[in-house]
Amino acid sequence: MANPSVKIGLALGGGGARGLAHIWAIKAIEELGLEVNVISGTSIGAMIGAAHASGMSGDDLLIYVQEKLKNTAKIVSQIFSASPSDLVDLLNPFKPALLNGETLLDILLPNQVVNDFSELKIPLKIITTNYYEGSEFIITKGNLGLAITASAAIPAVFRPVIMDGNIYIDGAYCNPVPYSTILDDCDFSIAINVNGRPIKPKKSTKKSNKTSVFIPTSKDVLYASNQLMQNRIMEERLCHSAPDIYMHAPIDKFKVMDFHKAQEILEATKPMKDALKREITLILGL
Fold first, then answer.
1. 8 Å CB contact between 176 and 226
2. More reliable by pLDDT, 94 or 189
3. Which of these ranges, 22-26, 28-32, 161-165, has the smallest mean pLDDT?
4. Which of 90-94, 125-129, 195-199, 250-254 has the highest mean pLDDT?
5. For 105, which DSSP code?
6. Is the pLDDT of residue 88 over 50?
7. Least confident interval from 39-53, 138-152, 172-186, 230-244
8. Which is more confidently placed, 246 or 106?
9. What is the pLDDT of residue 97?
10. Rounded distance between C-alpha atoms, residue 104 and residue 83, angstroms
11. Three-state DSSP class for 44?
12. Contacts of 66 (CB under 8 A, 6+ apart)
C-alpha cells in the first residue's frame, strides 16, 4: 500500500532525445500510487519535468511522444530544415550556433505545458548555466519556455539565451542530473541519468592512414565529449551527496538528436520502469 505522506522529489537529467526515457520514471511512480511533489530538470529533463508539472501524466506523455514523433521524416525535416532565419551555419564564425532552441521547443513541447512557473501544479526547478559567471543558475519563476530553452542551450549547437541581461547555456555544464537542488525539499529523492557514453563500432567503417581505428565525426565528438564531461561531473557530485535512488537509463546506443528514433528509445528503456518500481518498493517498504 502506497504511503501518501512521503514527499517525493524527482530529478531528471539532460541528454537530448535520450531523455524520453524519463517518461518511464514518471509512470513507475504513478503505477505505485505515488505522486511527485517537487521536480528539478536539466535540458530535456527540464522539458519533461515541465510537462509533468503542468499536469501531464506519464500516460499523457507517452501518448504525446508516440503520436508527435511517429512520423520520423517529418520531425527530422522540422528540426533540421527550418527556415534560414531559424537555422545558422555551424561553420560560420559570425553566427552563434547551429539551431535556435526556441524553434526546437516549439516543435517538441506539448501544448499542455503552461507558459509561466506560477501556473504549474508541481513546484519545478530548471537548471541552467550562467555563461560569464560559470555558475549554476536555478530558475523557479517567470517564462517557462524561455527557462527550458536556456537549460537546453548546448554550446555550438543551440544559441545561448539572454535573460535579464545575462547569458545562459545548457545547465548540464554545471549540474547534469540536478538532484542536489531538491534534497532539502523532499523525503525521498529519485534521480535519472540519461547521459550516454560513445560505443566503439564492432567493425571499422573509417580508417586513418596508419590504423584501422574508427574515427568519429566532429559532430559525434562534440556530443560525446559533452556527455563524458557530464558523467564525470556526476561522479564527483555523488561523492559528496546522493539521492535515495540514482538510475542510469540504458541509452548508450542512442545519440543526443535522435528524436526521430523516439519509439526505439522508448522500447529500449521500458525495462527501467519495472526496475525503478522494484527499488522504490524495496526502500519505502510498499
1. no
2. 189
3. 161-165
4. 125-129
5. H
6. no
7. 230-244
8. 246
9. 46
10. 12
11. helix
12. 262, 263, 266
190 forms bridges with which residues in the sheet?
10, 245
248 pLDDT more than 70: yes
Return d(Cα 154, Cα 277) in angstroms, integer. 32
Is residue 182 within 8 Å of residue 40, measured between CB atoms?
yes
CA–CA distance, 66 with 71 (Å, rounded to integer) = 9
Q: Is 204:147 a contact under the CB 8 Å cutoff?
A: no
- Rg of the chain (C-alpha set): 19
| Residues 6+ away with beta carbon under 8 Å from 211 | none
Question: What is the residue-wise DSSP string for 218-271?
Answer: HHHHHHHHHHHHHHHHHHHHHHH---SEEEE-S-TTS-TTGGGGHHHHHHHHTH
CA-wise closest residue to 56 among 114, 137, 125:
114
Termini Cα distance of the chain: 5
Distance CA 77, CA 260 (A): 10
Cell of 33: 500510487
pLDDT 10s digits, 131-166: 999 999 999 999 999 999 999 998 877 888 999 999
**Assigned C-alpha cell, 29:** 511512480
Which amino acid does the sequence have at 83? Answer: S
Query: Who contacts 84 (Cβ-Cβ below 8 Å, separation ≥6)?
Result: none
